[in-house]
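Weekly sync, protein design subgroup
Attendees: M.S., D.O., the rotation student, P.L. (late)

Item 1: inverse folding check
M.S. brought a backbone from last month's batch and wanted to see whether the design step gives back something sensible before we order anything. D.O. pointed out we never logged the input encoding, so this time it goes straight into the notes. Structure tokens as presented (318 positions):
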């Protein structure tokens, strides 16, 4: 090659690699979809309910099987029961209590008292709180089938819709780094799948939970991730995000929380990996739906993009 042509080629190669590295350093900020019409007929639909600080997610399958994953705080009971009524839920095929913290089981008694529940899936961890005792009594009074969640269990809901338990494993997590909690770490984690679509629900899983699931090699890949522990800084590692490889993330948290949920570090990791972010504190209820091939996410409220990517600082320990 003549030296002039070689030099030009070298300049081009250098310019191209510089352009590529610039592109890598400033990826386009992922934008959440705006509110809009939601088609639910014949689709799998997940409603991330607006329950304030806590979790409450309703799943309705194409054949109208129903699953409730967590039931917010006691103050969220009206929001949860009215949402169930709004979506025509008359009974629940499966209720999952990810772990016995009040922001996940607070309105369980109200739900069990008002809707026939076929199966109740629990982490198997006990608590001394009155909220937990009330939930257990309601389960006993209504003679609900009580199941202890263990990794490997599968619930076939209807044509192709499946819920697989990924956590806890037979051996519960007993040691946690500072700031975390054992009850959170042993949260029930499930993977909901329908055809090519999958969504992971993590409860209040901690870094230890994520590491344990990755070590056990359970299937974690999913298009949508319900972020663990309301976006807490004790969860959602970069390696976990790479393993799940979600295209969208849902954070369920309250606008007035003092726990620093969601944490700026978690939001930075999501943004760096180009993951669309939806937050119940800003977007209100979030509706995820799929036909088993593609999926659609619609928030019920528009939110300012700068606010969506802004985390909170804790003024109270988690
Ligand atoms: Zn929680
Ligand atoms: Zn918790």
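Designed sequence read out in the meeting:
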């Amino acid at each position: 090659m003549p030296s002039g042509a070689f030099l030009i080629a070298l300049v081009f190669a250098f310019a191209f690699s510089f352009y590529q590295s610039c592109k890598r350093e400033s990826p386009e900020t992922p934008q959440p979809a705006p509110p809009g019409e939601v088609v639910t007929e014949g689709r799998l639909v997940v409603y991330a309910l607006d329950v304030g600080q806590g979790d409450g997610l309703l799943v309705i399958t194409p054949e109208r099987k129903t699953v409730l994953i967590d039931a917010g705080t006691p103050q969220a009971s009206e929001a949860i029961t009215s949402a169930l009524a709004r979506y025509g839920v008359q009974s629940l095929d499966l209720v999952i209590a990810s772990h016995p913290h009040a922001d996940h089981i607070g309105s369980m008694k109200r739900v069990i008292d008002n809707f026939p529940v076929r199966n109740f899936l629990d982490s198997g961890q006990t608590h001394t709180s009155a909220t937990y005792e009330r939930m257990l009594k309601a389960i006993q009074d209504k003679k609900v089938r009580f199941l202890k969640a263990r990794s490997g269990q599968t619930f076939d809901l209807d044509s192709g819709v499946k819920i697989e338990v990924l956590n806890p494993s037979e051996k519960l997590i007993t040691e946690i780094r500072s700031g975390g909690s054992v009850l959170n770490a042993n949260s029930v984690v499930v993977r909901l799948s329908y055809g090519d679509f999958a969504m992971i629900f993590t409860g209040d899983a901690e870094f230890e939970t994520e590491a344990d699931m990755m070590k056990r090699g359970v299937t974690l890949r999913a298009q949508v991730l319900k972020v663990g522990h309301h976006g807490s800084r004790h969860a959602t590692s970069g390696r976990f995000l790479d393993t799940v490889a979600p295209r969208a993330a849902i954070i369920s948290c309250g606008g007035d929380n003092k726990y620093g949920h969601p944490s700026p570090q978690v939001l930075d990791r999501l943004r760096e990996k180009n993951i669309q972010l939806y937050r119940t504190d800003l977007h209100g209820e979030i509706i995820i739906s799929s036909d088993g091939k593609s999926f659609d996410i619609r928030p019920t409220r528009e939110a300012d993009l700068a606010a969506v990517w802004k985390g909170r600082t804790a003024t109270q320990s988690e």
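Discussion: Residues 36-308 form a domain with the Metallo-beta-lactamase; Chain A fold (CATH 3.60.15.10). The radius of gyration is 21 Å.
Action: P.L. to compare against the previous round before Friday.
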